[in-house]
């Protein structure tokens, strides 16, 4: 299965009031493995960023002034995501901007070029109800280093989210558990880390012989074949 982890940075919070996309980052996953085939573009939004947004991403108007406009990268983006399952953290936000940009060009909404969308924020809330489920919080929870994340960036955030998504959906590979353990007497609640892989140790020849002796005794006691032998691989 081909999946694309996607993130955007924007000039503000609302595309309907004129805010625009200034960065798109995509990370490709194929059959649950990162391929290194990524898509990353800075975009000239033809307007300034809000002060609050600028504080988050740090992409100034001067830096973006010589970058391509969205309509110049839209077809390349559409080809990259075509038919893939899209993974986004807080999907309604990014999709609102992407759909708006595509509609400005007279194209079908962005969502129609993808097979489906997974919102990792929704998934995280289902797995960890009542807890913080921001990207930073999930990185901490799953042991993914984000020390290099000083500002938000679309490609960096997509790379982190890809690692979070793979960890969050790995099933029982490592029997990860999200339980709370209260320290004795301290009243501090901690999250237990992931458990190690299960080690399966086969029985030795002596152990198998002892087991067979036990079954033989049970057979003698019931004057026939004990129930256990009917389900034993050696039975």
Automatic annotation (TrEMBL):
SUPFAM superfamilies: Ribonuclease H-like. It catalyses: DNA(n) + a 2'-deoxyribonucleoside 5'-triphosphate = DNA(n+1) + diphosphate. Its EC number is 2.7.7.7. SMART domains: EXOIII. The keyword Disulfide bond does not apply. Keywords: DNA replication, DNA-directed DNA polymerase, Exonuclease, Hydrolase, Magnesium, Manganese, Metal-binding, Nuclease, Nucleotidyltransferase, Transferase. Pfam families: RNase_T. Residues 2-174 form the Exonuclease domain. Coiled coil: none annotated. Its cofactor is Mn(2+); Mg(2+). Signal peptide: none annotated. NCBIfam families: dnaq, dnaQ_proteo, PRK05711.1. DNA polymerase III contains a core (composed of alpha, epsilon and theta chains) that associates with a tau subunit. This core dimerizes to form the POLIII' complex. PolIII' associates with the gamma complex (composed of gamma, delta, delta', psi and chi chains) and with the beta chain to form the complete DNA polymerase III complex. This is DNA polymerase III subunit epsilon. It comes from Telluria antibiotica.
């Amino acid at each position: 299965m081909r999946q694309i982890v996607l993130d955007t940075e924007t000039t503000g919070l609302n595309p309907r009031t004129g805010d625009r996309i200034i960065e798109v980052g995509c990370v490709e996953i194929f059959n649950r493995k990162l391929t290194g085939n990524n898509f990353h573009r800075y975009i000239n939004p033809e307007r300034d960023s809000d002060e609050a947004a600028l504080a988050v991403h740090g992409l100034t108007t001067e830096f973006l002034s010589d970058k391509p406009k969205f309509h110049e990268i839209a077809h390349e983006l559409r080809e990259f995501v075509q038919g893939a399952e899209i993974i986004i953290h807080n999907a309604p936000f990014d999709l609102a901007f992407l759909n708006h940009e595509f509609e400005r060009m007279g194209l079908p909404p962005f969502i129609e070029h993808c097979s489906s969308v997974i919102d990792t924020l929704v998934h995280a809330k289902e797995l960890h109800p009542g807890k913080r489920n921001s990207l930073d919080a999930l990185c901490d929870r799953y042991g993914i280093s984000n020390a290099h994340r000083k500002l938000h960036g679309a490609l960096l955030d997509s790379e982190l989210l890809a690692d979070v998504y793979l960890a969050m959906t790995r099933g029982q590979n490592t029997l990860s558990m999200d339980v709370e353990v209260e320290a004795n007497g301290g009243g501090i609640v901690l999250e237990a880390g992931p458990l190690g892989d299960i080690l399966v140790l086969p029985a030795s020849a002596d152990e198998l012989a002892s087991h067979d002796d036990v079954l033989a005794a049970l057979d003698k006691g019931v004057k026939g074949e004990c129930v256990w032998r009917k389900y034993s691989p050696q039975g």
